[in-house]
Each structure stands twice: as structure tokens, then as C-alpha cells.
Amino acid sequence: MIRLLSLIRLFALLRKEAIQMRRDKLTFGMMLGLPLVQLMLFGFAINTDPKALPAALVAPTEDRFTRAMVSALELTGYYRFTYPNASTAEAEALIARGAVSFVVTVPSDFGRRVERGDHPQILIEADATDPSVASGAVSTLSTVATQALQRETGTTPTPEAEAAQLSVIVHKRYNPEGITQYNIVPGLLGVILQLTMVMMTSMALTRETERGTMENLLSMPATPLEIMLGKVLPYLCVGAVQVAVVLAAAKAIFGVPFVGALWLILLGVLVFVLALVILGYLISTLSRTQMQAMQLTFFFFLPSLLLSGFMFPYRGMPAWAQALGEVFPLTHFLRLIRGVMLKGAGPADVAGPLWALALFVVVLSGAALLRFRRTLD
Q1: Architecture of domain 53-173
Q2: Domain boundaries, the chain
Q3: CB-side neighbour CA atoms (13 Å) of 185
Q4: What is the pLDDT of residues 53-83, one digit of tens each?
Q5: Which of 113, 122, 155, 249 is most enclosed, with most CB atoms within 10 A?
């Protein structure tokens, strides 16, 4: 009668599994790498209360009251005046393309009205495409600016004096109601495309290898470029269907405004999807099995989701995390799609993200062609 448990047989099975894990270095590396990546990103990179947000100052006459107010805003930690001498036209272009989060406009007669106690006003324009970014900074505006002027004029900080001395007019641009769906739904288009396009394409070649049909593919008189296009182009059609579904739902169900040109949206989506399917093809050249392809896809997807600005404010992350976020196509696509759909940005405003996506296509295509193997070894 065979014993239910044999330590010798159990040890043999454990040794066999250990050898398999040692041979599958990719899976073992993912087991160690993913927790470490999550720990680093959530522990150091994620910040839901962004500080040092870039701002532009439009002040025709920079008197001592204006300087005191600007200094007080900078001391809050929320504002960083990267463009301290902007004109009205320059400030409009900066906030349209996302270079600044705020435009602070101080009228030319601001100093005279402060001295006379004649209800001076300042205008704060906030980029509200992401409501969570501007909320903390806007909440400190009125109190901080008023206290700064009271210290400069030497008046007593009473509620009556605050009401009479300064009015801060806040204009939330592009999303005045602060509707979260206006920010999330356009970003979801990029997230859905990234997950599906990369995963499906990454399994294209690995599926051929596992089914034993890769030899037939390699024996065909086809160049690596032809094989790559044959694997990639069908998934562009799948991506087109997904784009149509998401954009129709965004308009019909969530009422997301389509302020910009539709052709510019579709152009950005086309370049983005092309970069994704080529990335998936590159992953398939690195993987031996479909499981490895799926693991590499998720290893790419997680930091891309966290560092692109989809889930957490991009400007709330430290400088090293923002630099790392620049290497993901999703980061540039979110800037493009939100800029066109919500701000009505034109080709000149989104030229940077569009060229970045095109660069991803070129670099990933070259890497995929270099990685393609003509043999199964």
C-alpha cells in the first residue's frame, strides 16, 4: 500500500519546482519587482495635494503691494511663478497648452486702489481640467492675499477690513463646475487602449511559438517588417472600434465636451494606438510564453497608470517621478486628449505631445525589428 505522504517524494517535487522557478527568471523577477515598484511609487511618487504648481503673473505695474501678494502666494508652497512677466496673450497660450496651472492677473491700478481702500480686485484663472490639482491652491487664495496686503498697509486684520480691502475673483477654466468625469473619461480612453492593445499584440508572436506555427511563419519569404505589419495592423482596426465606443459613450452618457477639432483627436489616437501595438509586438519578441507576455504587459502598465497623471496629479509627484513618467506614451496622450477635448487646443498647442508619440513609434519600431529572431533559438 502506497503511503499518503512520503518525504522523499515531496522533496523531489519541491526540488523540481525550485529548478523550474530558477529557469523562469522573468516570472521570478516579476514576483520581486512588482512589490518593490508599488512600494516606491505609492510611498514616494504619489501625492494627492500637489505643491509648487507653475503659474504665470500678468502685472503691468509691479508695485510693492503686488510684490507682497505674490510673495505671500509663493510662501504657501502651492504657487511657483515660472512666468513672472507674462503678457495677457502669453498667459492665455501658456494655460491653453498646459504649461502653467494658474494665471494671476493684477490690474494696473491695483496699488492705487489698495491705498485708497477702494475694493481692489485680482483675477486668478485656474486650469480646472483636473479639479483635484487646483482645489488646495484655490482654497488658500483669499486669506493669504488679504493678509499680505494688510501687513503691507499696516491695517488691523478684522473680518470687516478683509471684506472691504480685497476681492479675489477665481475663474476655473475649461471645467467651471469641477466635474470629475470631464477629467476621467478622456483619460480612460488612453488607459483602455493601452491595456488591450499592448496585451493582445504582445501575445501575437508568443501564441505562434506555443502553438508550433512559428516555424511555418519563419519559413515564409517575408521580411521582419512585413511580419510586424501583418501582426500589428489588424489590431489597429480593433483599436478603432474601441475608440468609437468610448468617444460615443463619453458624449452621450457623460456629456464630456468636445471643444477641439475631431480630426486632431483622431490623429492623436492613431499615433498613440500605433505606438501601443508596436510596443506589444516588442514585448512578444522578448517573451517565450503568453504568460510571460502578460506579465511584462502588467509590469509596464502599472507604473504607466500611476505616473501618467491619470489617477494622481502629475505635478504633485517629485521631479524624478515626473521625469520617469515622460517615458510612457500614456502621459503624452493624456495631455493631448484632454487639451483638445476640454480646452479646444489646436495643432500648435499639442505639437509637443504629438511629436513625443511619433518618436515612440519610431524608437519602438526600430527596437522591435532589431529584436525579431529568424530562428526559434
Answers
A1: 3-Layer(aba) Sandwich (3.40)
A2: 53-173, 180-371
A3: 21
A4: 889 999 888 778 888 888 888 888 888 888 9
A5: 122
